[in-house]
Amino acid sequence: MVLSIIARVLSAAVSIYMLLCTLRVLVSWLPSLDLGRSGDLLASATDPYLGFFSRFPVLRAGSFDFSPIAALAVLAVANNLLTTLAFTGSLSVGVALGMLVSALWSAVAFVFSFLSFCALARVIAYAARWNSLHPLWRVIDAIINPILYRVNRIVYRDRIVNYLQGLLTGFAAFVLVRFAGGALVGLVVQLLRSLPF
Question: What is the pLDDT of residues 70-85, one digit of tens each?
């Protein structure tokens, strides 16, 4: 009973901190927005935690920084574990591992969904012959081109393909990984949750 109450209090605290971190990420996208003293308090409460994840180069793709997604995923796992502990009074290793795998996959799935969206937007822009030098398309190209290069190198084995074909191949690969990975992770999570310990 005491453990359940402690878990509920901690879960509520983690939920509030997740909200603060999300707010901090959103505010960082608007550098001209000045929140004054409350913005300074928000930054001092969340920047050390968010900054820890920004140290990992693997969480960057071109000019895009995925470290906030990783930071929020860790908080989501902690919150799920605490919520399960609060309502069941116990937590098995299998359930905890299942939650961890599920949360990690959620972050990865978000990245693949985002890449799919970017590739599809770029295909539409290319087919419609929109200005490819527009800053929006340059940002999207900076995000997806390094990944598209690797995907196309695997698929086409160093053969040269045109840009549209490369975009379509990348889009198909992102969607395939997103859904096939989701199905595989779902099976792994079910297997982990059924473990007797």
Answer: 888 888 888 888 888 7
Read off the pTM: 0.68
76-113 b/e with 16+ CB inside 10 Å = b? Answer: bbbbbbbbbbbeeeebbebbbbbbbbbbebbbbbebbe
Query: In sequence order, what are the residues at sequence separation of 6 or more whose Cβ sits closer than 8 angstroms to the Cβ of residue 165?
Result: none
Rounded Cα–Cα distance for residues 43 and 174 (Å)? 34
